[in-house]
Amino acid sequence: MIEQELLRRFDRLKACYEELYDSLKEERKFLPRAKVDELQVVVQQIEQNVNTINSERKDLMTFLTRYTGNKKPSLELDDLLRYISPMYHYDFQTVYEDVTRLIDNIKRYGKENRFLIEDGLSFIEETMQTVMGAQEKNITYDEEMKLRKRKNNNLLFSKEV
Question: How many Cα neighbours within 13 Å face the side chain of 60?
Fold first, then answer.
């Protein structure tokens, strides 16, 4: 009955990855709008999803270790199919490929979301430098080729304005 147990565990893992994927899609909706409160809720949900996935993977590895006798069993499809009756190969292969596809989509979405976050932070930093006046712009060379600090060019915080 390893086939049914393995299928059941991979189905649970698939459901966990689907929840994580949905959470990443939800995060994507809020990133461009910078909705901090909603993002915070989604990030907590993502953390919970990741913890659940880690727990499910640990349970799966414990099960495989017990069944196969290997301390570090392989999660490669060909290795797992050796333990499964041929009549369950198609069902298992389908679930395994679904999980693999979800993992690839999650990695892609995660990278894209990180890019959006980094791009947003860069924009904020550039905006703040423009408003506050960047430090590099306050240092120039004079006619004697000596470094001199220029007067702060930030008109927004200037007393003269």
Answer: 21
Q: How far is Cα 31 from Cα 51, in angstroms, rounded to an integer? A: 22
- In tens, the pLDDT along 70-129 reads 888 889 999 999 888 999 999 999 999 999 999 999 999 889 888 877 877 777 777 777
CB atoms under 10 Å from CB of 130, counted, come to: 12
| Three-state DSSP state, 136 | helix
Residue 47 located in a structural domain: yes
Residue 160 counted as domain residue: no
Indicate which CATH number applies to the domain containing 17.
1.20.58
Measured CA to CA, the distance from residue 26 to residue 45 in angstroms comes to 10
pLDDT tens column, 20-69: 999 999 988 887 777 788 888 999 999 999 999 999 999 999 999 998 88
**Domain extent for 42:** 2-135
